Structure to design on (758 residues):
């Protein structure tokens, strides 16, 4: 594991001495997991009521995406268009791990919980940047993951912090000390399973999906008891009947050039391929507290590019899915791309907002930004599609089938919109998304299931002679029209935050972290972080002062410069 | 020659099967992979300092026959899962040796960077090609082994990772030669 051994602590001498003693003391106690307790975190208890009301919480940042609806809209305007030019670092925390950083920092009463690659968790004083404790899991020898050893963050509830680890375990930590309360094995990494997403905790349940769509897994979303880690329910993202309706067109009505007769013949020969069909879940479910339902999106089928050995629509890959929170029972789904052979799947988390239906009436909706480059708008009641937005990125030759030589099609396989969460401003019915433009060729090569090894069924190849770039895009989800769009020199991956100060914040692979005017996309402030800013920002307030915080650790998937910084900004 | 070496190793292995310590079991490996971690032949890989998950999976695949090698398959045949994992962890703890391999030419380095930008080697092998867990470190690996491995993936003679085969087929042979030079001199 490449590591940066420097752990930059902004302490005075006396405290450093105390730290050394504490380190020595805890080192003798811990065997399995290395945890360096510096001092206990403050008041970290989080009630269900606080979690429910997070969208109105001007002090804390309690969920990966801000609140259960996942709007990533922070309701504080102390940092705003008028003073954002004065934004400056309050502190920089250096983690032990210099590798891809995708964490969404969570903040509870002045204590921040952030993660790094290889599933480390840090508790940090959100006001000073001082380390409170560090949980470093002893990962098993076998870890199987595509796209980097990432971790996207923790969930908090009551007195616990929950993290899912790269070797497919779910771990509950004591929020005050970082001590392990319980640990649960989710699946076998030797079969291709791993965990990079942050869990979601609601009403005593820890919700978690799985990675592995590039390795022939059978995906799932599960609920575990937050108190003791026992399994409460399991939902297989690939049902035993994965064939579906033999859809020939995608969600936007474009022909996907399926050879249905050949697929039916293959189905008769090999049967339903559900056992190794992939369907990973990369990001948190949104929770509709009013109806007690959750909404999430399911990733690509396995193998990614070779559809010949997986006949049918490959349900519920590339789909929005809704379940009953208490039982995990299916409520509804909508599949964007049936029988995907481009890996243009669904990874950016679903967001619950009120939307205009086709008649202009306001109804509870759910929106998702796809790798295709569209924002899809659904009726929350039955998952049906109301509209899709203008394409935020170039689309060319869709849906050209992959060939042995490699067929060019846009968007490239990273999208569109990757796993990066969008932000929304529900009052203005705007969604803010970050986009990639990476021209690629799609190359197919058939091979049998390789037993938990990488199983792409071909290759995605970036076309080196063509320009790659990115966008920050604001979309009116009630009309589907792009309100503004700003081009960036790098493909964008990480995430975005909107605030009541009329701002949106997002970072770039070249190290720039920027504040945009939420109304017109004008860049109002920027900071060079020294490594790729490819993580979703958060915001919080301590002692009456608002901060913006973001990880700057680069990105494995697009190979942006690595770093190990978590940077908090404020204005004086 | 290969048969003779296999026979000698198998004799050694039958002795190691009765051995108590993992160090003794690991002794047999030094005959090819080097007593000091420097392989006896340029076509043999460095295993000292290699990641345990990767080493374990290779032993497992030799045992299952999905990775084929006249020397390694008979050796892996007699190992239990615990043996394989213990050997993997034993070698992971050793210091990766620095081989006297020259840094790649500017042209080869430029080609290698372009190839990485195109097929995303560092997406799995990670920053600086250091690997982790089940993914091999390839920075500083034996040049001839690197090149042979990439070409064997390309022809699918090495058949225990079809994803790698697909990626190697998405690059040209000349690209892979440049990549081998670049990685060897890393």
């Amino acid at each position: 594991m490449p590591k940066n051994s420097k752990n930059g602590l902004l302490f005075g001498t006396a405290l450093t001495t105390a730290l050394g003693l504490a380190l020595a003391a805890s080192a003798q106690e811990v065997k399995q997991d290395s945890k360096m307790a510096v001092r206990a975190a403050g008041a970290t208890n989080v009630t269900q009521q606080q979690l429910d009301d997070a969208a109105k919480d001007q002090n804390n940042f309690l969920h990966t995406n801000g609140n259960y609806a996942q709007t990533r809209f922070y309701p504080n305007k102390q940092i705003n268009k008028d003073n954002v030019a004065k934004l400056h670092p309050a502190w920089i925390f250096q983690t032990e791990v210099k590798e891809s950083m995708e964490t969404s920092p969570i903040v509870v009463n002045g204590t921040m919980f952030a993660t790094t690659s290889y599933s480390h968790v840090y508790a940090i004083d959100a006001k000073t940047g001082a380390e409170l404790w560090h949980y470093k899991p002893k990962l098993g020898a076998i870890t199987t993951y595509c796209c980097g050893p990432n971790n996207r963050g923790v969930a908090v509830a009551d007195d616990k912090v929950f993290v899912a680890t790269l070797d497919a375990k779910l771990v509950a930590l004591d929020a005050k000390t970082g001590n392990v309360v319980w640990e649960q094995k989710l699946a076998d990494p030797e079969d291709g399973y791993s965990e990079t997403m942050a869990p979601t905790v609601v009403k005593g349940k820890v919700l978690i999906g799985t990675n592995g769509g590039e390795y022939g897994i059978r995906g799932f979303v599960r609920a575990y008891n937050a108190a003791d880690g026992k399994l409460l329910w399991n939902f297989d993202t690939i049902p035993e009947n994965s064939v579906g309706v033999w859809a020939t067109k995608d969600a936007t009505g474009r022909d996907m050039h399926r050879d249905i007769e050949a697929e039916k013949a293959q189905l008769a020969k090999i049967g339903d391929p559900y056992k190794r069909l992939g369907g990973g879940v990369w990001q948190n479910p949104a929770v509709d507290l009013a109806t007690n339902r959750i909404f999430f999106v399911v990733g690509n089928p396995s193998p990614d590019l070779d559809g010949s050995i997986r006949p049918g629509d490959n349900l519920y890959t590339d789909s929005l899915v809704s379940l009953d929170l208490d039982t995990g029972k299916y409520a509804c789904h909508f599949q964007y791309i049936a029988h995907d052979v481009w890996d243009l799947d669904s990874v950016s988390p679903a967001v619950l907002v009120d939307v205009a239906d086709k008649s202009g009436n306001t109804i509870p909706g759910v929106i998702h930004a796809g790798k295709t480059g569209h924002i899809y708008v659904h009726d929350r009641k039955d998952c049906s599609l109301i509209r899709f937005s203008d394409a935020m990125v170039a689309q060319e030759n869709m849906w050209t089938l992959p060939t042995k030589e490699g067929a060019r099609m846009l968007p490239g396989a990273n999208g569109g919109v990757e796993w990066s969460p969008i932000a929304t401003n529900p009052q203005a019915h705007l969604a803010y998304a970050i986009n990639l433009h990476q021209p690629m060729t799609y190359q197919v090569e058939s091979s049998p299931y390789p037993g938990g090894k990488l199983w792409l069924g071909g290759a995605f190849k970036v076309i080196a002679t063509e320009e790659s770039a990115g966008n920050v895009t604001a979309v009116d989800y009630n009309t589907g029209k792009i309100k503004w769009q700003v081009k960036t020199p790098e493909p964008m991956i990480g995430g975005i935050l909107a605030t009541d100060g009329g701002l949106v914040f997002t970072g770039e692979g070249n190290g720039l972290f920027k504040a945009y005017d939420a109304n017109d996309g004008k860049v109002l402030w920027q900071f060079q972080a020294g490594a790729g800013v490819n993580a979703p920002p958060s915001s919080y307030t301590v002692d009456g002062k608002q901060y913006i915080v973001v990880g700057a650790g680069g990105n494995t998937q697009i190979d942006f410069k690595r770093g190990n910084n978590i940077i908090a900004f404020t204005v004086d | 020659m290969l048969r003779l070496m296999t026979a000698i190793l198998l004799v050694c292995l039958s002795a190691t099967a009765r051995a108590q310590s993992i160090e003794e079991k690991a002794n047999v490996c030094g005959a090819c992979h080097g007593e000091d971690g420097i392989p006896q032949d340029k076509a043999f890989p460095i295993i000292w300092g290699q990641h345990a998950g990767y080493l374990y999976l290779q032993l497992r695949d030799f045992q299952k026959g999905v990775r084929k090698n006249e020397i390694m398959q008979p050796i892996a045949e007699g190992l239990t899962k615990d043996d394989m994992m213990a050997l993997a962890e034993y070698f992971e703890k050793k210091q990766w040796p620095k081989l006297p391999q020259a840094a790649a030419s500017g042209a080869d380095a430029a080609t290698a960077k372009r190839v990485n930008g195109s097929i995303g080697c560092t997406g799995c092998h990670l920053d600086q090609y250091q690997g982790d867990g089940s993914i091999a470190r390839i920075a500083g690996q034996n040049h001839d082994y690197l090149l042979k491995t990439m070409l064997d993936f390309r022809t699918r003679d090495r058949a225990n990772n079809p994803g790698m085969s697909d990626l190697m087929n998405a690059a040209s042979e000349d690209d892979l030669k440049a990549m081998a030079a670049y990685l060897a001199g890393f």
Observations:
- The interface with chain B takes residues 1-2, 98-99, 118, 139-144, 146-149, 166-167, 189-190, 214, 406, 443, 445, 447-448, 450-451, 453-464, 554, 556-557, 559, 562 of chain A (CB under 8 Å).
- The longest helix of chain A spans residues 13-29.
- Chain A has a mean pLDDT of 93.
- The CA atoms of residues 160 and 174 of chain A lie 5 Å apart.
